[in-house]
Amino acid sequence: MTVRLAFDSSTPRASVALLQDDQVLAETRLQSVGGRHNDHLLAQAEALLACCGYAARDIDELVVVQGPGSFTGLRVGLATVQGLALSLKRPIRAVDSLRALAFQHGPCERPLCALIDARKQEVYAALYYWRPGQPLSYVTPRVLPPAQLAYQLPEDVLLLGDAARFYGEALATAGGRQCFAGLACGGPTAAAAALLVHAQPDDFALLTAACLRALYVRASDAERARQPR
């Protein structure tokens, strides 16, 4: 039996979940303007543990969505998990937000394109095909304009995520051809990330707090400003 406390702050709708193996004991979600989750994640984690009758010492592993997504949200989420890992002396498993979103949808005969709004009229995107028990990456996470992505998608693809709703028209009409056969909205969740870890533990190494890194995919505005022109 493995008890996991999971966090996702890759989008403005952050979530925290407590799981025992593949059973979701409790999950909470919060909306935070601008992706600034601050101390809310830790407070929600403490509330979940208390609600389910668990203590922090009962946690075996921590799970965190490492990106891509909101730069600020990811920094806050990873810092929260690093602090917990150090204080509790527990390992961390880091999960790609787009893969968690594809897993969250469930088995599908069509290819799945997971999308997260990257702002600046761009999306984070990755393409997956379902194989027994898990979505396998076909096109790794990248950031690009929706119209450019449309030309790279198979015609029967199913678009996933809130960004599919925001940019669905551009994706469907770019180049004058239909690019998707369906639409499923939503975002990655902490529970989905932990369930993916439970289903495929060998895919997610046990990390120390010092080894945890965000998956940003693109450089921040500050990093781009420092680049030579």
UniProtKB/TrEMBL annotation:
SUPFAM superfamilies: Actin-like ATPase domain. Signal peptide: none annotated. Pfam families: TsaD (PF00814). Residues 36-128 form the Gcp-like domain. GO terms for biological process: tRNA threonylcarbamoyladenosine modification. GO terms for cellular component: cytosol. This is tRNA threonylcarbamoyladenosine biosynthesis protein TsaB. It comes from Desulfuromonas thiophila.
